[in-house]
């Protein structure tokens, strides 16, 4: 099963939300944004401090048992939503609205991708310009995408061992890439299909457009 989550980043950073066949979770203002676009979330989480009283009342009319979390708490609204999703029978989560605003919220979202990876759940952060995914060691196929020309690989662990890139403009063969390196920023596929592989570490892949 797959779940989409919409958080509360600025509206201008969020791509069109047209995946109506997938179940949605709304987080804080993301609940209201989904409802505005005619998408009814299956769950709503947050302290809703970014909404007006009228907007919150509208959500409460739809979710009469809505729990409004305190603003001061140990988990972000997004983590509360992620914890709920990870307790379902789930394989994939796409998160929208977690980038493009506050950097602390963005890095918090990236940390949650790592948390999900430990449970073997694939998570992507998606905005109008980028997608970000995280991988354990292995071999992965990658296809060219008309919206995302550039592909970057960034270590999330202290180092990534034996990183190999095939089908790329800048290929790589069994290279150790330490955290802090920009070696694998702004690469491109030169074929419709490519592969990347590594034998140890945690690797982030970011696909970006112009």
UniProtKB/TrEMBL annotation:
SMART domains: TPK_B1_binding
All residue ranges annotated as the Thiamin pyrophosphokinase thiamin-binding domain in the record: 138-204
First-level EC class: transferase
EC number, UniProt record: 2.7.6.2
Signal peptide: none
Keywords: ATP-binding, Kinase, Nucleotide-binding, Transferase
A Pfam family annotated for this UniProt entry: TPK_catalytic
GO molecular function: ATP binding; kinase activity; thiamine binding; thiamine diphosphokinase activity
Keyword Glycoprotein applies: no
Alphabetized PANTHER family for the sequence: THIAMINE PYROPHOSPHOKINASE (PTHR41299)
Protein name per UniProt: Thiamine diphosphokinase
Organism field: Priestia filamentosa
């Amino acid at each position: 099963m797959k779940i989409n989550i919409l958080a509360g980043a600025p509206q201008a950073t969020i791509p069109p939300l047209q995946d109506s066949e997938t179940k949605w979770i709304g987080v804080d203002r993301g609940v209201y944004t989904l409802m505005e676009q005619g998408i009814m979330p299956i769950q709503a989480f947050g302290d809703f401090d970014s909404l007006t009283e009228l907007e919150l009342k509208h959500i409460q009319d739809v979710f009469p048992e809505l729990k409004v979390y305190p603003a001061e708490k140990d988990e972000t609204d997004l983590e509360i939503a992620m914890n709920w999703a990870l307790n379902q029978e789930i394989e994939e989560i796409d998160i929208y609205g977690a980038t493009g605003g506050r950097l602390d919220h963005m890095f918090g979202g990236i940390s949650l991708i790592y948390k999900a990876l430990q449970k073997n759940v694939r998570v992507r952060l998606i905005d109008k310009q980028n997608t970000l995914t995280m991988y354990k060691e292995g071999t992965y196929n990658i296809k060219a995408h008309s919206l995302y020309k550039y592909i970057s690989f960034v270590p999330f662990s202290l180092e990534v061992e034996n990183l190999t890139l095939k089908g790329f403009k800048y290929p790589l063969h069994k290279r150790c890439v330490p955290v802090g390196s920009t070696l694998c920023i702004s690469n491109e596929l030169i074929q419709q299909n490519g592969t990347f592989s590594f034998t140890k570490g945690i690797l982030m892949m970011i696909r970006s457009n112009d």
